[in-house]
Specification:
Layout: H1 6-11, E1 19-22, E2 26-30, E3 40-44, H2 58-76, E4 80-84, E5 100-105, H3 124-136
Antiparallel strand pairs: 1-2, 2-3, 3-5, 4-5
Length: 137
């Protein structure tokens, strides 16, 4: 654990999050600044800076990515999903703990250009409502 890492603090329970999936290797939680409704981050429990860091963590978090992807599509009625991870500041990484973005996509905002338009509410009540849909199913 890195004491100055936001995601390590979320994993340790020091910072609250809306977790939608947990296993022995990974945690998935709603992004508080979502691009689209249900935007979720999957992170490894152990601190690893990015997908290029050693020892690699990609295979550890793959089951969480797969499970959470299906959960988002099934429970939120998404029509598709974007999955991505940024490595390095130049690529847009701003929290240096490996994380995979799972962004549910809806027919009303289809296409690549609309991915980065933040259309989802950041209101805590709306995030709570999305969280309830995912965990209470």
């Amino acid at each position: 654990m890195s004491t100055d890492c936001l995601f390590c603090k979320i994993i340790a329970g020091e910072v609250p999050s809306r977790q939608v999936y947990v296993d022995e290797h990974a945690i998935a939680f709603l992004d508080i600044g979502p691009y689209h409704r249900g935007h979720t981050l999957v992170v490894p429990r152990r601190h690893v800076a990015d997908v290029l860091a050693e020892p690699p963590a990609w295979t550890e978090i793959a089951p969480a990515v797969e499970h959470t992807s299906k959960l988002l599509v099934e429970r939120l009625g998404a029509d598709g999903l974007n999955i991505f991870s940024s490595t390095g500041a130049v690529a847009g990484q701003d929290v240096f703990h490996l994380h995979v973005h799972l962004v549910p996509r809806y027919e009303s905002l289809a296409g690549g250009r609309e991915l980065y338009q933040r259309t989802a509410s950041t209101d805590p009540a709306e995030l709570d409502a999305v969280h309830a849909e995912l965990v209470e199913g």
